[in-house]
Amino acid sequence: MPPEQRDFDEFLDKFKRHRELMTEELHKVIIGQDAVIEQIFAAIFTGGHCLLVGVPGLAKTLVVSTIARILDVGFKRIQFTPDLMPSDITGTNVLDETEQGRREFRFVEGPVFTNILLADEINRTPPKTQAALLQAMQEREVSIGQTTYPIPDPFFVIATQNPIEQEGTYPLPEAQLDRFMFNVKVDYPTLEEEERILVSTSVADKPEIRKVLSARSIQYLQRQINMIEVTPLTVSYVARLVRATRPGDPSSPQFVRDLIDWGAGPRAGQYLIAGGRAMAAMDGRPSVSLDDVRKVAVPVLRHRISTNFQAQAEGLSTDDLIVRLLKEVPEPSIPRYE
Q1: Fewer CB within 10 Å, N or C, the chain?
Q2: Does 195 share its domain with 309?
Q3: Do 79 and 113 fall into the same domain?
Q4: Which residues lie closer than 8 Å to 259 by C-beta, 6 or more apart?
Q5: Does some domain include residue 270?
């Protein structure tokens, strides 16, 4: 076995153990929500952002704050409110007086200058404030006046949103939704999990959380995950799947043309491959399978597809259509050599 392959196999073993250790530490506080945790980890390991959507009381904020405790990185939390201003997120220039008596502007960093930013109830602030995160999420930098400031690496935005309240909320624009790698649905716990939650929260002792990964370790893992193999077969399947979501594409099924207004863009395909790589790495495998792509298809695509009135009248959600699409889009055929 070549030394490079041996080193990569060792990396996969260590990566799998790190992931298991992080899950173990997280489950000291969080009961259940395995799929949610797995998707957040996948986003962190690939440098993506997450939007957590769920009704109040499902520990969305607690999941994020606990993840920040097991990672040795900077963490800031912003409570989004209707009166929040863009400068409250990015920072602003203030007029300062030097020791020599001169007055000059000095930049005061906002909470966006961190490693993990929790944007709590992001849909409670107006669009102009929501848009303050766009540059940071995409370019990892912030422009104030004529100066551009880099944001620390690694950087993740994990936002939470309540899906049931309409009054006093501002839906995220599609351009900003597209910046999120995953739209993670946080669901109710099972009966057994809910009983365990009630027992664990009725005791006074708080579990001790150990730090597992540093910022440099996360950067190393992100570079190594890019070495996970993505075969031409997987790329072809991802491209076909994304294009099938577009009602104007000749390859899209009839039900897509009937029920969807607009489908996913190329960024969806990029995130499907990145998510597939993370799933393969967390499972200790050196290449992405089509099942890895299917596993992340719903959280990657559900906020990138817009259903029309007919779909809503039939009670069909984007999740329903994605599941149906996964059944109907065929796997690419493997060329045979004679």
Answers
A1: C
A2: no
A3: yes
A4: 307, 308, 310, 311, 314, 316, 321
A5: yes
Residues 93 and 124 placed together within one structural domain of the fold: yes
SS (H, E, C) the chain: CCHHHHHHHHHHHHHHHHHHHHHHHHCCCCCCCHHHHHHHHHHHHHCCCEEEECCCCCCHHHHHHHHHHHEECCEEEEECCCCCCCHHHHEEEEEEECCCCCEEEEEEECCCCCCEEEEECHHHCCHHHHHHHHHHHHHCEEEECCEEEECCCCCEEEEEECCCCCCCCCCCCHHHHCCCCEEEECCCCCHHHHHHHHHHCCCCCCCCCCCCEEHHHHHHHHHHHCCCECCHHHHHHHHHHHHCCCCCCCCCCHHHHHHEEECCCHHHHHHHHHHHHHHHHHCCCCECCHHHHHHHHHHHHCCCCEECHHHHHCCCCHHHHHHHHHHHCCCCCCCCCC
Q: Which domain holds residue 48?
A: 1-200+213-227
Same domain (yes/no): 241, 189: no
User: pTM here?
Assistant: 0.87
Domain count, the chain: 2
Q: What is the CATH number of the domain that holds 234?
A: 1.10.8.80
Please report, for the domain that includes residue 64, its CATH number.
3.40.50.300
Flag residues of the chain having pLDDT under 70.
1-7, 165-168, 204, 334-338
Share of the chain above pLDDT 70, in %: 95
